[in-house]
Each structure stands twice: as structure tokens, then as C-alpha cells.
Design goal:
Helix content: over 70%
Order of helices and strands: H
Shape: rod-shaped
Number of strands: 0
Strand content: under 5%
Distance between the termini: 195 Å
Radius of gyration: 60 Å
């Protein structure tokens, strides 16, 4: 009996048996088939990993591209915010000035209404005093007429 070692696989064959070389060849074919399947599986895994890697790289590129646009948009928004703050400050100053003028005008209106009320009261009092003096004058005239008619006749 002879022992044949094939590449360190530990496969032995016998010259006395006709099925021994076939068994060794079958084992080699099975081993080749398993290796071939493993190699194909590894290639498929590598392809899938490369596809995933490319997809991730595309997403990174997209994010970087979007980042530049977002930075530009943020800069524009910051500039616009600064301009709006300036306009707001100006509007507040104008409002304060207008509100001050409105308060002054309201104070002048209140003063004018008080003066008008005072003038009206004085006019009413003067009118009453005039009417009272007129009544007294007529009464005095009537008394004088009565006295002249009654005393002379």
C-alpha cells in the first residue's frame, strides 16, 4: 500500500483499490468547488461593499455640495438680518420721534380745549352779566318812566 499526500491535504490513496484515486479526485473537486464558491461569495461581498462605499461617497459629495450652498444661504441670511436690524432701529427712532410729536400735539390739544372751555365760561358769564345789567337798566328805565308819568301828571 502506498500513501499519496496531495499538497498537504492528507488525502491518501491505495494502489490496491480502484476507487481510491477517484475518491482523492472527488475530494479535490469538492475542495475546488468549495473554494470557487467561497471566492465567488467573497467577490459578491466585495462588490456589495464597493457599491455601499460608492453610495456613501456620493452622499458625502452631495452633503459637501449642499454645505457650500447652505454656507452661502447662511451668509446671505446673516447679511439680510443685519440690514433688517438697521431698518428696525431706524423704524424705532422714527416711531419714538413720531410718538413724541403725537404726545406734544395731544398736550397742545388738551391745553386748547381747556382754554376753549375757559373762554366759553367767561363768555357765558359775560353774557349773563350783560343780560342782568340790561334787565336792571330796563327796570330802572321803567321805574323812571313810571315816576315821570306818575309824578308829573
Amino acid at each position: 500500500m502506498t500513501s499519496i499526500t496531495n499538497g498537504g491535504t492528507g488525502i491518501t490513496g491505495s494502489t490496491t483499490s480502484s476507487s481510491a484515486p477517484t475518491t482523492g479526485a472527488m475530494a479535490l473537486l469538492e475542495k475546488y468547488s468549495t473554494l470557487s464558491t467561497n471566492i465567488e461569495s467573497t467577490r459578491t461581498s466585495i462588490t456589495q461593499i464597493q457599491t455601499n462605499h460608492q453610495s456613501i461617497q456620493n452622499q458625502i459629495d452631495s452633503l459637501l455640495s449642499s454645505r457650500h450652498e447652505m454656507v452661502a444661504t447662511t451668509n446671505d441670511a446673516t447679511t439680510e438680518r443685519g440690514e433688517l436690524q438697521k431698518k428696525l432701529k431706524l423704524a424705532i427712532r422714527l416711531y419714538d420721534a413720531t410718538d413724541g410729536r403725537r404726545r406734544n400735539a395731544q398736550a397742545e390739544l388738551d391745553d386748547a380745549q381747556r382754554d376753549s372751555t375757559t373762554v366759553r365760561r367767561c363768555g357765558d358769564e359775560s353774557r349773563r352779566a350783560f343780560l342782568e345789567s340790561r334787565r336792571l337798566f330796563r327796570s330802572a328805565c321803567r321805574d323812571v318812566r313810571i315816576a315821570s308819568v306818575g309824578g308829573g301828571g
